[in-house]
Every structure is written in C-alpha cells, then in structure tokens.
Amino acid sequence: MDNTSQESQLQSENSSTYESTYPLYAMAISSSSTSSNLQRIAVGSFIEEYTNRVDILSFNAETLTLRPNPSLSFDHPYPPTKLMFHPSTPSSLLRHSAVDLLATSGDYLRLWEVRESSVEALSLFNNSKTSEFCAPLTSFDWNDIDPKRIGTSSIDTTCTIWDIEKGVVETQLIAHDKEVYDIAWGEARVFSSVSADGSVRIFDLRDKEHSTIIYESPQPDTPLLRLAWNKQDLRYMATILMDSNKVVILDIRSPTMPVAELERHRGSVSAIAWAPQSSRHICSAGDDAQALIWELPTVAGPNGIDPMSVYSAGCEINQLQWSATQPDWIAIAFANKMQLLRV
Amino acid sequence: MLQAAVQSLHWTYTLFWQFSSQQRVLKWSDGFYNGEIKVRRTVEAMDDVKSSSSSEDEEASLQRTNQLRDLYYELLLSDGASHGDIVANEPPATPRPCTALSPEDLSESEWYYLMCVSFSFPPGVGLPGKAYARRQHVWLEGANEADTKTFSRAILAKTVVCIPLLDGVVELGTTDKVQENINFIKHVKRFFIGDHHTLPPKHPLSENSASNPILEEPQLLMELVMEEDSSATGLPDGGSNRLDSSWLELLPAEPAASVVELLHGESDNSEAETSQQLCCMEQEGHTHYSKTVSTILEGSSGHRCQPDSLPSVRRLLVDSFQSAFAKWSTSANYCHEVLVVENPQRLLKNILFRVPYLHGNQKRQNTNYSAQTLEQLEKMMPTTSHDDDLISSHVAAERRRREKLNEKFMTLRSLVPYVTKMDKASILGDTIEYVKQLHETVKKLEEKDERRRSGKKRKERAVEVSVIEGEVLLEVECVEKEGLLLDLMKTLEEVGIEVTGVKSSFKGDDDERVFVVELRGKVKKNAKRRNKISIMEVKKLLHNTINSHHHPLP
C-alpha cells in the first residue's frame, strides 16, 4: 500500500484538517454559507457513552482554515447516527436567514437552530405513543425538493416520514423484514431504503401499499448498510454490503441486476457519496484508509472499473460527505480527525 | 483606444487588465477582439474583408467583441455560479436575444478571447501581474511553449505582450510569433498616451519567417506595426483551414490538439471524446482555463439536458497540482488481495447495530414505571462505571437478555400483519389474533380438500341442449369417462341428429378432471322420425348415456 508514486500530495493548499479530542463519525456540510464566505460543518462524536457532542466548525475556502466554534457546540445523547443541515435556505421555517437548521438522529429526530453564537434545540420528533418503547433511528434523509419532509429509518423495520413544519408524522411504513439501516430520497415523494434483510426497496408515497425491490444481496440476508441516490441522475443508486469491499451501483430501471460493482478497495467500504455536480462520479471510502473517486463509464472494461483517483488517509475512513455547496471539496472523517480534501 | 491599437497592429486581440485596489488584483476590464470571426461555422478571412473596406471591419470586430462579452456574461448568469474573479463591467440586463451567439458559433481564437475574461492576476503573478509589478513591459514570445507559471493561458497566442499603462496592464496577443521590439511597445503606448510621432524605422525580421513555416507572410507583421494604414496582407491566418492548422501547430503536444476537438466536440455533443481529451488536458495543468471552459460549457449546455457531456469537464480539476487526490495507476494499485481487518466497518457497524440499543437501555433506566422486574433489577444497580465487576457483568448479561427478547419481539412483529402499535402487549395480542385466524384458514382449507376427495358422488353433470331451426348445440360437462364421447355421438345419431362439429376438452384440478364437450349438429330430415325432436327428450337420452357410462375411477 505504501507506494511512493501513489502518495497523495497533502499540502496546505489542497486540504484542511480538524482534530478533535474524541472520535468522529457523523458529519454534515451546510448548504448555505454565511456572509463572510464561511461554510459551516457539523461533526458528531462517537463515544460509547451517554454524553456525546456535536461541534460546528467553520471552513473558509479561501484561507483554507477549519476552526471550531466553541459556542456552537451542544450535547447529544449517545452518538448521533446522522447529521444533516437543511437542504436549502430555510426561509419558511425561520425568522432570519443567518441561521442554519441542523437535524440529528439518535433516539429521536431532533431539530436544532444554529445561530451566530448559540445553538437552540427546536424540536424533538417522537412517534411512540407510550414512553416505554422508542425505536431509535439508524439514519434519516432530508428531502431537498420538499424540505418539510424528513424520512427516518429505524431498527423497528419501519420508515417514518415526518412533516417537520407541522411536527407530525406524515406516514409510517413497515419497510422491511428487519432493521432498516439507511434511507434516501429520490424525488419529492419517492424514497428508498436498505435493510438487514439485504434488500433495496423503493417506496412511492402515492402508493403506500406497494414497494419495489430493486436489489437483493447475493448471499441472502447479508445486510446492506448504506445507500446513496444519485441526485444528478435519478436512475442510479449505490449501496454497500456488510463486510464487503464492493460498491454496488444500481439502475432502478433494471432491478436485481447491478449495473456495476466497483471492487478496488482493499478493505470493506464504509461510506459512499455521489458527486453533487456530476452524474457519473462517485466517491467511496473504507477500511483500507483510501478514498477513491470513480468515474462510471458507459461501457465497462473486462477487468472491471478502475477508479480515477485515490487518497490515502492515515487509518480507516469512517465517513464521507460531498456537498453541493462545496463541490470542489470532499470531507472525510477518520479516527479523531475530520479532513477536507480538494478534489 | 484598445480597438485602434490592436487594429493598427493587426494583432489578434487586446485586453486591458485593470488593477482593482479593493481586491488587489488585476481584473479583466476591457478588450477588443480582432481575430477571425466565425460566421455560420465558416471562418471569414479577415484579410479578404480588409481590402474592401476597413471601416466595415472595425464594426464587425467591435460588434464581435461586444457579442463575445455579452455571451460570456450570459453564460455566467445562466450558469448561476458567481465566478468570483470577474468584474462585471456591464452586466447584461436583457436576456440574450435569439440572434446572439451560441457557443458553437465561435472560432477557437474567439473562445480564447472569451476565456481571458475570466482571469485575474494578483500583482506579480502571471504575465500581466509581472508587468504591473515591474512597471515594465513583458514580452513573451512562443507563449504556447511557455510553462504554466509564466503564462497559464498559453493556448492560442504565440506572442503575448503586457505593457503596464495607466492604472493597469494592456495585453496584446497574436497568433504569430513576433520578436520583442521596443518600438512596438512605444507604438502601443502612443495610442494610449496620445503622443503621435513619426513612425519608427522598419526592422528586419528574418528570424521570424524561418520559425514559422506554416505562415506565409510573417515578416509583414512587423512592418505593419510600423504603418498606420496597412495593405491587405495583414493577418496570416487566411482561411479556416489555415487557422486550424496553425491552431494545431500552436499546440504541439497531442493533448492540446484535443482542445480543438473539445471545442468542436462540445458543439457536436460528443461525450466520450471530451472526457478523454479533457483528461489529457488536465495533465497540462491548465486548470484555470479548463475551469472556465467548464463553467461556460456547463452553463450553456446545462439547459440542453446534456449533463453527461460535462461532468468530466469538471473533473479536470482532479490531477491538477492542486488536488489532494493522486491519479490512480492500475499497476501500482491493482491488487487482488483484500486486507483482512479484524473488525471491518467497525464504526459503521457500531452506529447501526449497537448505538440504537444503547438508547433503549437508557430509556428504560429513565422511565419511572418499568413493567419488568428485571429492569427494576438493573435500576437498583447503577450502570455508570462501577468498581464491582460482578455486578456490572450481571447487568451486562441482563441487558443482553433483554436485547435478545426485544429482537425476538421485533421479528414476531414483522411476521404479523396489521400491527399498529409497537409495544410488547399489543404485539402479543395481535399475534394471538393472527394465529387464530390462521387456524381458521387451515381448517377451512382442510375441509375443502376433504370434500374434493370425496367428490365421486357429487353430481357434477351439466347437459345443455338447444335446438334452433334444425341446428343443434349441445354442451355437456361431466366427470371424465372413457368412451363417453363416442356414446354421445351414437345417441345423437339414433335420435336423428347428424353431428357436424365437436369441441372437447378437459378442465379441473389434478384429481378430478371434468370433461367438457360441445357438439354441434343438424337435425336430419328423417321420414321415420318425428320432425320435431324435443329438447327434453334429447337431454334425457344423453343423461342416460352418461349414467350408463358410470365406470369406477381408478
């Protein structure tokens, strides 16, 4: 793995690193930038205890500085499983536009208002009727076409669609036979989810009775852990299996047969993200400490598809985010660090 | 001023970089394009037009300059992205008229001009920057061969001159190689300072012609510099072919030729080419150029629903010296072995498998009313870091047991339909209901099966007879019997019905096969029989036939 010709040029002009005192997992990049060209990035800790924190960092793309804001840090019960900022300017939900909305998932879906120098808890979305039982969330996705919708996935095999403006459940579907691990919106009313039962299913809110299975893992019951829907070309989705070094690319028009299986990682893949500005590029990162950018060709060669470029971090990469507001930067998280890499 | 200067010189273009004090950079402020104008995909030769009327030329060039600028802003706007470097001197307020340019209409040099609009230089950086910093002119000859540090836009112009003037830098470029000449500089300055002297003497220019085999009259360029009014031998680029070849020649390396194809390719919407060539281009390191190209192209074709042709354009930035990512090389990296890690996807699995259950335990700790005594047991023992290993392991075991139970509850819930609530009591209640229902269903199905097996005695016969004007239609449905059809037909024959058509088939399940037959016939005019045959009689006869056929089934 240590091939000198492959060592990435990590210089101060093409990357920016933030080191935290605790391991990081969840990460989100804001879709709005404040006035002074600063981008907000939220990072969630991963501590196997009750007290965890979410920190908000500021990234200045011109000076390449990544700085935490101590006043914009808040507690979270147990590690947040996902963080996400509001997908567009939250004009309808907030009084003034200098604030950001951040959603976190853990035991419940929570909304936080990130202001200039403080973070306020806005709401908590709890669907359980009794207080005894709660169905913790593994992931959620904020619909960027209809931002009042957030879809959550839970270990109780259901997916819940929330109307966050009214603060009520729009619908709750039993999505799978086992725990649902990830959910992703395609259009305003279409979402898909992956589960421990090894299937990728697409749901349409107009027809809640039926779902379409577009892929099932070849070894039955191999859980599918993550899902990403290509926002630039809604035909394509990507998913990763448990303990697998493959990134499976699916075409929703041809179910059950993956379009491509990208198999160049030398360790299991932990995170995937489609390029926000291009329909043919995807980035993946995994236990081999590498982040690979792939370009999907129209015709694959006989040996499979090779990635376009590679970055080697110091250790296993756990998280990957590629934001539409900063398409030139890819954010990765490994160990205690969060790094922004110029593409 | 710019216009007059460049036209007198007959160079291809001129730009004025203005120094913006608030941003401390040199920005594109004004320019004039004097090169070839592409009209309807054919390149009009400048010199042809020139001889006829120079004033028309000027207008055409001016118009073209404005068009190019408007096009650029238009594309910027439609792209939506604010290209921070641009100083929009005259942001277009009106939407683009349909007669305006679209990217395919431009020739390569026009494209280059367009590109220049996007650049900006801090003092000391780049050719204009250096000129500004040194307050001295900079003459770059063979700009196409210069590396990116000195001249990052070395695509088209072979010679570029930057002269610091007024509050910025005037840049002139041409597709010819021109040697450095101080008089040239002075000449240009004169335009701006407004100091008209007599023309300086001509300079011989022998070296130039030898170095540029394609261009036929390069030396004339220098002469033209000296003269205010030139004859029509001006620009060396005579026609489209020559421009292309000189354009190609300007870019000796193979990747650069791809730029031409790129520009053509974009207009022809060929995706595969562009991506490949752009990948080559990136090796040259023309990052800014390519970035601008991509911005423009993306903006223009974004509306044409061809997202695929452009994503690779954006990918130009990979492998440029600025990227943190290194290019993938198959030989070095392609390795079959997958590293065996002790705990693959450790953090991800933790987040998905473990963390959600942590919440469950915490929740139970916090509730006041816990239904299970076991939970109460845990409450009595604090779960925070405790010295007593025995207690904590017991608690952990307890927790695992509870987790198992919960998991089983979940599985049970998922097997049962119509579950509304998720608490344990209703899961069990619903399951009980469901099992009862299933019992009922099983019972019913068994009964049905039973009945089916003893279906021998069951009367399963149907005989339909209809006679219309001598035409007989007979439909029989009964249990399968050997030779039944033959007997039926015989019976009909006896009755005086001539069988004209038979349709027979079997239907039914596996054990009980039902014989379905449709017989058509004609009543024979028989003297012996009555003319009218009663339907009831026929029916009775047929029934008899069927009955007499009662064979025991095997």
UniProtKB/TrEMBL annotation, chain A:
<dbReference type="InterPro" id="IPR045159">
    <property type="entry name" value="DCAF7-like"/>
</dbReference>
<dbReference type="Pfam" id="PF00400">
    <property type="entry name" value="WD40"/>
</dbReference>
<dbReference type="InterPro" id="IPR015943">
    <property type="entry name" value="WD40/YVTN_repeat-like_dom_sf"/>
</dbReference>
<keyword id="KW-0677">Repeat</keyword>
<dbReference type="InterPro" id="IPR001680">
    <property type="entry name" value="WD40_rpt"/>
</dbReference>
<protein>
    <submittedName>
        <fullName>Protein TRANSPARENT TESTA GLABRA 1</fullName>
    </submittedName>
</protein>
<feature type="repeat" description="WD">
    <location>
        <begin position="262"/>
        <end position="296"/>
    </location>
</feature>
<keyword id="KW-0853">WD repeat</keyword>
<feature type="repeat" description="WD">
    <location>
        <begin position="173"/>
        <end position="213"/>
    </location>
</feature>
<dbReference type="InterPro" id="IPR019775">
    <property type="entry name" value="WD40_repeat_CS"/>
</dbReference>
<dbReference type="InterPro" id="IPR036322">
    <property type="entry name" value="WD40_repeat_dom_sf"/>
</dbReference>
UniProtKB/TrEMBL annotation, chain B:
<dbReference type="InterPro" id="IPR054502">
    <property type="entry name" value="bHLH-TF_ACT-like_plant"/>
</dbReference>
<dbReference type="Pfam" id="PF14215">
    <property type="entry name" value="bHLH-MYC_N"/>
</dbReference>
<dbReference type="InterPro" id="IPR036638">
    <property type="entry name" value="HLH_DNA-bd_sf"/>
</dbReference>
<feature type="domain" description="BHLH">
    <location>
        <begin position="389"/>
        <end position="438"/>
    </location>
</feature>
<dbReference type="Pfam" id="PF00010">
    <property type="entry name" value="HLH"/>
</dbReference>
<keyword id="KW-0010">Activator</keyword>
<keyword id="KW-0805">Transcription regulation</keyword>
<dbReference type="InterPro" id="IPR011598">
    <property type="entry name" value="bHLH_dom"/>
</dbReference>
<keyword id="KW-0804">Transcription</keyword>
<dbReference type="InterPro" id="IPR025610">
    <property type="entry name" value="MYC/MYB_N"/>
</dbReference>
<keyword id="KW-0539">Nucleus</keyword>
<protein>
    <recommendedName>
        <fullName>BHLH domain-containing protein</fullName>
    </recommendedName>
</protein>
<dbReference type="Pfam" id="PF22754">
    <property type="entry name" value="bHLH-TF_ACT-like_plant"/>
</dbReference>
